Amino acid sequence: MMTAIALPQRKGQQGLVGTLHVPGDKSLSHRALMLGALAVGDTVIDRCLLADDVLHTRSALTQLGTEIDVNPDQQTVVVHGRGRFTFAPTVKPIDLGNAGTATRLLLGMLSRQPYPLTIHGDASLSQRPLMRVCDPLQQMGATIDLRADNYLPASIHANSSLKGITYQLPVASAQVKSAILLAGLQAQGATSIIEPVPTRDHTERLLRAFGADVERHGKVITLQPGSLLEGQSIHIPGDLSSAAFFIVAALIIPGSHLVLPAVGVNPTRTGLLTILEQMGAKIGLSQLETLNGEPRASLTIKSQSLKGITIAGAQVALAIDELPIIALAATQAKGETIIRDAQELRFKETDRIKTVVQELKKFGVHIEEKSDGMVIKGQQELMAPPADTVLDSHGDHRLGMMLAVAALLTGGKVLLKQAEAIGISYPTFLADLQSLLKSQ
Ligand code: S3P
């Protein structure tokens, strides 16, 4: 029997009030560790996320002979760069847990090692498609065997050469793009990637910060190998995907007033802010600053009314991880919200179209599953699920956090199963949510 925990509960008219520093960006933390391992000299990473997913990247790099020191108090990590692309051999399979980003990126980064390697992960990660990554890597000269031609475990064959390619991405995926770029660093000749729509460009920005030659012209990103990667001092901004839960919570819970300092606002990640603006929200951005090529700002959010909209096309990739919490925001908006062109949600930590619909229905919400998205009725009152109904994160951190915010709307006692999944990206999330509940 899996135990369920009671989620934070609002007392009376409590809103979310105060200032919160959300943990460092997960996408950037993975990338900073990886590029730090490849670079010459030390890389000091400030505000590195130390949550399950990133800890798997760290342990993989350590297993491959990289020295990494962690100072948990200051959230500072020092990577002693190897200064080369070849890692130490390991016969033990590399365990990446639930970490999709680590898996995709490491497949690219490790596709030219002079000895074989095996990568595996947990049950959820082992159901997520990998052919989308291995197909371009094989075109570059790598040989990777996947279970049933698409899934972990993956066996990367020993390899001594890769060649640059021009590759049109069939799906909008920053993970696939990044895997190709990391392989491209070690290839003969230039690598070009054509994106159907823009996806998060952290790899490109960080590669440039480390000294690599990466350029973007329209939809085409081109990397010229051969530049020296040099260790850097990297300042990771707060993760907008973690801040998203507090942004939406503050908007929809009356009496809220939150300040979230130094949150990453890279324009390829801010789809959530644009969507909320279209829904009528006014979110304050101040103290804009760019470090290591990554902009950050302080966000100020007060509770306010929203209206339903249609979310489709290029907007989807810019808010891909925020769609579960946007679905919750939509339940409180005036009018219907339609999310389409979001079939990629089916390949995340869970099938997020199915699990979001299934779990929100437990609050009595009218929400309809579509093949590529969902339709959400607005202005709904969420009811605490009956005593015999327990919410389930399904092992998906973002689903768990969205459900914790949904539970606050009910004012009642709500139980969540597999709540520990939240630790994949935000171990102190529930404590932070509880600490902000205040009567003004
Ligand atoms: C990520 C890219 C996105 C996102 C994931 C993190 C990254 O996945 O959903 O949480 O760090 O590159 P896709 O690129 O596969 O869409």
Description:
The longest helix has 14 residues, at 397-410. Helices cover 30% and strands 24% of the residues. With 440 residues, it is an alpha/beta fold. The radius of gyration is 21 Å and the shape is globular. The mean pLDDT is 97. It has two domains: 4-23 and 237-438, Alpha-beta prism (UDP-n-acetylglucosamine1-carboxyvinyl-transferase, Chain), CATH 3.65.10; 26-224, Enolpyruvate transferase domain (UDP-n-acetylglucosamine1-carboxyvinyl-transferase, Chain). It has a five-stranded mixed sheet with strand order 16-17-15-2-24. The structure holds shikimate-3-phosphate. Shikimate-3-phosphate is lined by residues 27, 101, 173-175, 178, 199-200, 320-321, 344.
The neighbouring-strand order within the major sheet is 16-17-15-2-24
CATH topology of the largest domain: UDP-n-acetylglucosamine1-carboxyvinyl-transferase, Chain
Low-pLDDT stretches are none
For this structure, what is the CATH class of the largest domain? Alpha Beta
Rg from alpha-carbon coordinates: 21 Å
Alpha carbon gap, first and last residue:
40 Å
Q: What is the structural class?
A: alpha/beta
Task: Give the SSE map.
Elements: E1 4-6, E2 15-19, H1 26-38, E3 42-46, H2 52-63, E4 67-71, E5 76-80, E6 94-95, H3 100-109, E7 117-120, H4 131-139, E8 144-147, E9 151-156, E10 166-168, H5 174-184, E11 191-194, H6 202-209, E12 213-217, E13 220-224, E14 233-235, H7 240-252, E15 257-264, H8 271-278, E16 284-291, E17 294-302, E18 310-311, H9 314-318, H10 323-332, E19 337-339, H11 352-361, E20 367-370, E21 373-376, E22 391-392, H12 397-410, E23 415-417, H13 429-436, E24 437-438
Parallel strand pairs: 2-15, 3-14, 6-7, 10-11, 18-19, 22-23
Antiparallel strand pairs: 1-23, 2-24, 3-5, 4-5, 7-9, 8-9, 11-13, 12-13, 15-17, 16-17, 19-21, 20-21
Helix pairs in contact: 1-2, 1-3, 1-6, 3-5, 4-5, 7-10, 7-12
Shikimate-3-phosphate is lined by residues 27, 101, 173-175, 178, 199-200, 320-321, 344.
